[in-house]
């Protein structure tokens, strides 16, 4: 399983609106794309340094690198453009790609 993990730092003033946008746009589009199997939406609980907001991690799960690459190529540009348009610099993010490791 391949995980596309995006970590977001979100200002307090937009938290509720941002989560609603993420649910209705980011996650809905990802799950309806045909490339993403499931997701997790997580909040960082030991984030004492970010007093102006919250830190979230959104994990999208794909069966293969190929599926993830197609999703990122076909969909992520418009999703991040939408985030930038809706929230400007009140949220920032970075992405990482992870692969699940099976332990014996």
Keywords:
four-stranded antiparallel sheet, globular, 104 residues, alpha+beta
Strand content: 25-35%
Largest sheet: 4 strands, antiparallel
The span between the termini is 16 Å
Mean pLDDT figure = 93
Instruction: Report the total helices.
Output: 2
The whole-angstrom Rg is 14 Å
State the share of residues found in helices, binned by percent.
25-40%
Low-confidence stretches: none
User: Strand-and-helix sequence, N→C?
Assistant: EHEEHE
Please tell me about this protein's structure.
This protein is of the alpha+beta class and 104 residues long. It has a domain at 7-41 and 63-96. The protein is 39% helix and 34% strand. It has helices spanning 15-32, 65-87, and strands spanning 2-11, 38-43, 53-62, 91-99. A 4-stranded antiparallel beta sheet has the order 2-3-1-4, with helices on one face. The longest helix is centred in the last third of the chain and has 23 residues, at 65-87. InterPro entries: DUF4286. It holds the Pfam family DUF4286. It comes from Aureibacter tunicatorum.
What's the short story on this structure?
By secondary structure, the chain is α+β, with helices and mostly antiparallel strands.
Layout of SSEs?
Blueprint: E1 2-11, H1 15-32, E2 38-43, E3 53-62, H2 65-87, E4 91-99
Antiparallel strand pairs: 1-3, 1-4, 2-3
Helix pairs in contact: 1-2
């Amino acid at each position: 399983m391949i995980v596309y993990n995006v970590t977001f730092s979100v200002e307090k003033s937009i938290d509720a609106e941002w989560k609603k946008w993420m649910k209705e746009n980011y996650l809905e589009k990802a799950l309806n794309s045909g490339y993403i199997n499931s997701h997790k939406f997580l909040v960082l609980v030991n984030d004492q340094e970010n007093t102006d907001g919250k830190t979230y991690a959104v994990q999208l799960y794909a069966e293969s690198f190929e599926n993830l690459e197609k999703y990122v190529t076909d969909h992520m540009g418009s999703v991040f453009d939408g985030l930038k348009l809706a929230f400007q610099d009140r949220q920032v993010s970075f992405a990482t790609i992870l692969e699940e490791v099976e332990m014996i």
